[in-house]
């Protein structure tokens, strides 16, 4: 049986990190933490949100699970981060997901999850207009590309219920 990667995609503030944390805390599904050449923000912790590295430390792409370049910075994960058996989650953008699916379906079962949110819900969560505008400029694969779509416009409890329903369906 191939390892299963739950690849989580969505706009800033849609609930990607919350979903990964929920899967880890409630269902013991580990999360792959990506590497980035982006500078660490003050509220971030190395090894939690990302592993923060210098551009000179970026390894050969053949060793990478997925790769994307966004905002002038590189983001990637390594094959060695995927558990040998079982399920893990990975927060990824659509460009990285497309690469992951195109290049590694023979090694991994990939379940693609799109979390969608209304602009009103994102604004209520305090997501600034610059991030919303930036997200509109990202690659969008279309809903048909995804195995699962979860709307997250309501309470955390409702979102958790939807996650559990979808996880049990898979």
UniProtKB/TrEMBL annotation:
Domain Guanylate kinase-like as annotated: residue spans: 3-84
Pfam families: Guanylate_kin
Range of residues in the leader sequence: none
This protein's record includes keyword Lipid biosynthesis: no
Gene3D superfamilies noted in UniProt: P-loop containing nucleotide triphosphate hydrolases
Transmembrane segments: none
Keyword Flavoprotein included in the entry's annotation: no
Protein keywords: Kinase, Transferase
PROSITE patterns referenced in this protein's UniProt entry, alphabetically: GUANYLATE_KINASE_2
Family matches, as InterPro entries: GK/Ca_channel_bsu, Guanylate_kin-like_dom, P-loop_NTPase
Name under which the protein is recorded: Guanylate kinase
Upper classification of the organism: Bacteria, Pseudomonadati, Bacteroidota, Bacteroidia, Bacteroidales
